[in-house]
Amino acid sequence: MSAFRLSPSELDTAALRQELSDPSCGGLVFFEGRVRDHNEGRAVTGLEYEAFAPLAIKEGERILREALERFGVVRALCAHRVGALEVGGIAVFIGIAAGHRGEAFAACRYVIDEVKVRVPIWKKEHYADGPSDWVNCPHCASAAAPGSLSRHAHERHEH
Amino acid sequence: MNSPIYGLVLSGGRSERMQRDKAALDYHGVSQLEWTMGLLTPPHVARAFVSVRRDQGADPLRSRFACIQDVHDGLGPLAGILAAQAAHPEVAWLVVACDLPFLDRATLLHLIAERQPDRLATAYRSTSDAAPEPLCAIYEPACRQPLLAYLERGQGKGKGKACPRSFLQRSDVALLDQPCWSALTNVNTVDEYSSAVTRLGKREQAEAQSFAPASKPDEQGQQGKRGKHVSIQYFAALREQVGLHEERVQTRATTPAELYAELRERHHFSLPVESLRVAVNDEFADWAQALADGDVVVFLPPVAGG
């Protein structure tokens, strides 16, 4: 199975963690992105993810390879949900296994930041107070533009 | 880890109705065998072979490529698939007939991208009867034993001639819709050959016209009317605005930027081109690159994963 995968069903994080076990690795970092009950001041009741699968997998794998090369970590994997999620649901899981904690934390941060701006996955939020809408973050749009130098703009906001 | 994909071009047909070797026919300026092998190149497949009958091993048209000889006689295309699986049982085989002059890279790339390695095979639905198209399909390593069992069962029981289509119909196969309508039209007779050459000639002329950077307006008026066919897949906000996941259009747009402008007028997209990226044939692309007939284009709204 590829190191970057899309899953239409709930992520099995125990199995994903197990895939990362490696006797040469002393530092393992896991990140879970979960569905929050609010965004930009509005109450969120749930959401849907949609992906352009062939390219999402290719780009996701490129990001994971970059993490291995840049940070010298031993294993890197990422699983992303597609389909409908409720508040509290796990939208994305990232796992890094490395010799030591420093590079594991750095690689994990790198992977989630890059996935958010480069992988063709879209999110439609359902709100308590009005019609659903596709999330369209202007910071992300400019950061994803080819040749853009504004990647740092993304690091100052969280969503 | 998915098993790697090797390509296999079937060239062992008897070409009885054509009365000429179908692999040697010229539709594109080179032999059809050479042209088909040219579609099966890395990185899409790791290696590619020509499937030949036992008596074709020394044929100069075929022997310039890596060949796999049939082990069985009289089994038609199944013999080629079985011999390839026996030679490299660990890989998946992208099997392609050499009598498909309209086959395009977009159709092959889509098949590879949508491959389901945990099924026995991934194939297209026939546009005429929705049955699996067996000769542009990916056969997984796991289908080797079922295929052998199918042959053993099928022989001598009056169930009709064993063929890869009937094997796929009885098996757990992922079936895809074809991105390009006529890509798998095969050509069996002399009449079909001449009509295919005419159609391809017209298509190539239209392409050459739309690629010409500085053609005169009067020439465009005469020859550029036909344009090219491209497929567009829509996601997220764009999908909802069009109300379709995919459409196929005939267009004179020469770049993705021109195509988006044309479609934005038709569908009233809210998103300006500056907020989008574009992908062609499942890879990020440049807005100014040349569009080709059969391309599959995706306009990517601002992403929001994580």
Give an overview in words.
The complex is a heterodimer of chains A (159) and B (306). By secondary structure, chain A is an alpha+beta fold. Chain A has one domain: Alpha-Beta Complex (Aldehyde Oxidoreductase, domain 3), CATH 3.90.1170.40. Chain A has helices at residues 13-19, 53-71, 101-118, 138-144, 152-155; strands spanning 4-7, 27-34, 38-39, 42-51, 75-81, 83-86, 90-98, 121-127, 130-134. In chain A, strands 3, 4, 6, 8 and 9 form a 5-stranded antiparallel sheet that branches. A 4-stranded mixed sheet of chain A has the order 1-5-7-2, sandwiched between helices. Chain A starts with a strand and ends with a helix. By secondary structure, chain B is α/β, with parallel strands linked by helices. In chain B, a hairpin with a 2-residue loop joins strand 10 and strand 11 (283-285). The longest helix of chain B has 22 residues, at 190-211. Chain B contains 10 helices and 12 strands. The model of chain B is unreliable at 209-224 (pLDDT under 50). Chain B has 2 domains: 5-176, Spore Coat Polysaccharide Biosynthesis Protein SpsA, Chain A; 227-306, Roll (Ubiquitin-like (UB roll)), CATH 3.10.20.30. Classes of the chains: A alpha+beta (159), B alpha/beta (306).
Essential attributes:
heterodimer; A: Aldehyde Oxidoreductase, domain 3; 9 strands; B: 306 residues; alpha/beta; Spore Coat Polysaccharide Biosynthesis Protein SpsA, Chain A; Ubiquitin-like (UB roll); 2 domains; 7-stranded mixed sheet; 5-stranded mixed sheet; 10 helices
What's the layout of helices and strands?
The complex is a heterodimer of chains A (159) and B (306).
Chain A: E1 4-7, H1 13-19, E2 27-34, E3 38-39, E4 42-51, H2 53-71, E5 75-81, E6 83-86, E7 90-98, H3 101-118, E8 121-127, E9 130-134, H4 138-144, H5 152-155
Parallel strand pairs in A: 1-5
Antiparallel strand pairs in A: 2-7, 3-4, 4-6, 4-8, 5-7, 8-9
Helix pairs in contact in A: 2-3
Chain B: E1 5-10, H1 32-39, E2 47-52, H2 60-63, E3 67-69, H3 77-87, E4 92-97, H4 105-113, E5 121-125, E6 132-139, H5 144-154, H6 164-169, E7 173-176, H7 190-211, H8 217-223, E8 228-233, H9 236-242, E9 246-251, H10 256-267, E10 277-280, E11 283-285, E12 296-300
Parallel strand pairs in B: 1-2, 1-4, 2-3, 5-7, 8-12
Antiparallel strand pairs in B: 4-6, 5-6, 8-9, 10-11, 10-12
